[in-house]
Structures are given as structure tokens and as C-alpha cells.
Amino acid sequence: MGRTLHWNILPKGKQLFDIQDLKIMYAIDKTADTACEWTCETFDLSVGIYPNWETKSSWDKVNARYEELQKEGMHPVDINFQLVKEKLVSLHNPQWQKELGGFCKVGGNELNAAIITGALAEVSKKVSCLIDLRDEGEYLICPIIIEQGHARPNQDKIARDIGWWMTRKWDPAYNTDTELLAKLESSAKEYYEISQKYKSKYYPPRCLWSVSEFCRAIKPEDFKNHPEYGASQIMAGFDGEYYGLSKKDPEAESYKACANIQKMIETIFGEKAKNMELVIGKEIGKQDKKKNEGDNGHSRRSPVGDKNE
What we know:
Layout: E1 4-11, H1 19-33, E2 49-51, H2 59-71, H3 76-85, E3 89-91, E4 100-105, H4 110-126, E5 129-135, E6 144-147, E7 150-153, H5 155-166, H6 178-197, E8 209-210, H7 231-236, H8 250-259, H9 261-269
Antiparallel strand pairs: 1-4, 1-5, 2-3, 5-6, 6-7, 7-8
Helix pairs in contact: 1-4, 2-3, 5-6
């Protein structure tokens, strides 16, 4: 599945990113990267490298030298720049000091989307930067700007999206599809309401709200119009995959995975994790089932992206 989250990280003011900033991002990146299984791609904040074809380098040469430097105890970020000095590699983004952009395909895995959002919020608290984050899916309710662990709507992108949606009624490729036009109009209305609700009174705009304010609650019933994702598969996203689990009771296994999310987030983002609160209902034991007739054996989950600060 191609659903993707995109981000751009910009240094604040006239400041430029330095090697220490990259090392901070690397630490957050790798902690988040190992916190869960990834449906499509893994989270990556590094400045990518590739063999320097002008010096007739190759991946074999790069990998061999990388291992040598790694054995010497050199930090992975320092290794990449040492390889650049030795003309073994080139950087995908030579202008990394001015901007760091990236994306990650997560398919329908909302846990992956939540981890990425929380990790970027953590970056914004430890590195002087502004982060533009947008989601092709439904986890984020709108494009956002993140600064110092807080967020605001990206009003410029919202305005452009509304303009594009509303002008489709005059586009021959769209104006005969009344159902699609109704959906576009509904999306434009939702975006407009968000832009007004979270309009900053300051100029330049300030990030005044918790990141979780802009995270949609993850509930299986929201996917009722997507029969390709059964309720248990939606929940299975919290165990790393939407394509089914190997054990006999995938729904129970998924709820068990949910119960571990808060602990996981605390490990990644610190004990308080104020900007990515996840309140998960505990699994009801066999002895409690009689008290909850009509229940499926699990307590109701509180939504991911809780707005409590």
C-alpha cells in the first residue's frame, strides 16, 4: 500500500543544522525504528548516502569500509561523513544543513503513523527546528507544523487544498461525478473548520496545541467502508501488520499489543510523553467477562491521539 507520511525539517531562523543535530535525530530515529514492526518502510531521518560513481566506488567497497570504521567505534553519522571525505560516497542531500526532508510509507498501519508523528515531535523538542508534517491517510486531521513539541495547522497548505478541492466542480474530469464532488466539498468544509478552530492570534503564527490535537482517533468502526480491512486487521496494525496474524485469535493478540503501546511510547519519548498520549484500555480477564455481558471480552479502548494534556 502506498499511503505515505511526508516531512520537511527546517532549522529555525538563520541557523544551520550541524553534526550534533544529526546525531540527536539518529538516536530518536533508531529508538523509534526498533519500537514496532513496520508494514512497508522503516522510519529514517539520516542523510542518505550512495557510492561515488565518479571514483568508481561500489556498495561492496562502501560496506567494507563502513564495517572497518564501525569496529573502531565511530558513530554512524561520523562514518557517513568520513566516507564522503574518502570520496567513497556522495550525499543524497548535499544541502542537509538547510533542510532535511523525508517520507515513510506505512500502508494502513496507524501505529507506524503514530510512532512517526511522536518521533518528529521529540525531534522538535531537542533540535531547534520547524517540522512540516503531512499524511496522505487519515491519521492526521490536517497538515501540521511542529515546533518545540507543539503543533499548529499548516494554514498555507490547508488553503491550497481547499482551493483545489472547490475548483474541481468546473473541471470536466470531475464535475460529472456528483459523489466525488460531495466528498471533496465535505473535505473542504472540514479543513476550513479546522483552520478556524486552530487559528493563531499571533504573527508569526505560534505552535500552541498538543500534537495529539491533530491526531485522529483510531477506531475499527471508522473503516467500515473499507471491507478490505476487517476490524481485527485494523487492530493488527498495532502488532505490525494489517495482513493477518499467525495465531488463532488475532483480535485478542491485537488488543494485547495495544496494551503495550503506552509503555512503548514512554520508552521512546520519555516518561511523560505529553505530546503523544496514548490511553489504552486493558484486556478483561476471564473472571471479569460475566460482569460485561455483551462485551467481546475486552474493555473499550480509549482513542489513540487522546487530546488530554
